[in-house]
Design goal:
Elements (H helix, E strand, L loop, with lengths): L1 H17 L7 H8 L1 H44 L5 H6 L8 H7 L4 H31 L5 H8 L1 H4 L2 H11 L6 H8 L14 H26 L3 H9 L4 H12 L1 H16 L3 H6 L11 H11 L5 H30 L1
Length: 336
């Protein structure tokens, strides 16, 4: 018996050393040692990667065809001296930054830049304010609120050519319904579309009317995600309507408000058809923006200037990119 026990004691250290502290799955050990199992796992990984790329490929092709290539083509146009002939045979001489220099030194540049900033900032701020007020109003819930919200979507659903033509008719100096209404209350008619003082204001009014439904929809969906218990607790604490809006509604809507303002900014920067149909950027350059000015370079003059027109378009892209990067930075700070 003593010999057997001693033999067991002598074997136990070797056994403990051979047994790991955290034993692995015997099937994994066998699989790792089996070349066929490793090959099967490698094939499964390749198959899953191929499936992932197959799902990404249509989106990548769409982005390349409709975003990357147009951006590349626009940059190429801005760095070459294109005429109608060289545009067809694709044999334009390289001009470097000459087109950008021409644009920046053109007397129309700063009026167009100022009009673009005024048109964009005033439009998005008033669209946001009106959309937020309507969203808070409809968030209370009442009879026919759904029907009224649907009616408010009409300006957003109409084609822009219809909305622009309607506003051009309404603001017509001689036969417009707006001047007729002013005449009824004893106010002198206004040359809305032909006066340098009122042309930009007219297109801003029309653009605000078109953009309010978009802000209403986005902000209303954001209000639906705010818990009603917060308002109940605030009312029990004696908070009034304005205090609830300032302390609860507006702070909790900041993420939704940020993306709404960014999308409105990008959309408003590139508005062309509304201004062109109503005023064509005139009279003179009174309502001309970078978008309409770029179109004039490329298509509006007797001899098209594709290079300067593309340069103006790239300036618009750069402005939108700057604001997009600012938005990303603000979002990171809020998350951090």
């Amino acid at each position: 018996m003593t010999t057997v026990r001693a033999d067991r004691l002598q074997r136990s250290p070797a056994t403990s050393r051979a047994t790991p502290a955290d034993p692995a799955d015997p099937t994994e050990k066998a699989g790792s040692a089996d070349p066929a199992a490793r090959t099967r796992r490698r094939r499964q990984r390749r198959r899953s990667q191929f499936t992932a790329w197959a799902f990404i490929a249509p989106l990548a092709a769409y982005l390349a065809a409709f975003y990357l290539y147009p951006l590349y083509r626009n940059l190429d146009l801005s760095l070459h001296h294109y005429t109608v002939r060289s545009f067809v045979d694709n044999n334009a001489p390289f001009s470097g930054w000459a087109n950008y220099s021409q644009v920046l030194h053109d007397p129309t540049f700063w009026p167009a830049m100022r009009n673009t900033m005024v048109f964009t900032l005033v439009s998005i701020l008033l669209q946001y304010a009106a959309g937020l007020a309507l969203a808070v109003f409809f968030n209370r819930g009442f009879r026919l609120s759904g029907t009224l919200r649907a009616l408010f979507l009409v300006p957003w659903l109409l084609p822009l050519i219809v909305s622009s033509s309607t506003w051009a008719w309404m603001l017509n100096s001689e036969s417009g319904v707006v001047n007729y209404g002013l005449h009824l209350v004893g106010v002198a008619p206004v040359d809305w579309l032909t006066s340098p003082s009122w042309a930009l204001t007219s297109v801003i009014i029309a653009n605000i009317w078109i953009g309010i439904p978009f802000n209403l929809v986005i902000l209303y969906s954001g209000l639906q995600n705010i818990p009603g218990e917060l308002y109940e607790a605030a009312s029990l604490d004696g908070a009034g309507t304005w205090q609830q809006f300032r302390r609860i509604t507006f702070p909790l809507l900041r993420p939704v408000s940020a993306i709404t303002l960014l999308l409105g900014l990008v959309y408003t920067l590139k508005v062309f058809d509304l201004i062109w149909i109503m005023t064509k950027g005139g009279p003179g350059d009174a309502s001309s923006t970078l978008a309409t000015w770029s179109y004039r370079f490329g298509f509006g003059s007797p001899l098209p200037q594709f290079g300067p027109g593309a340069a103006v378009g790239n300036i618009l892209i750069l402005i939108a990119l700057v604001f997009g990067l600012l938005y990303i930075r603000v979002q990171r700070r809020q998350v951090g």
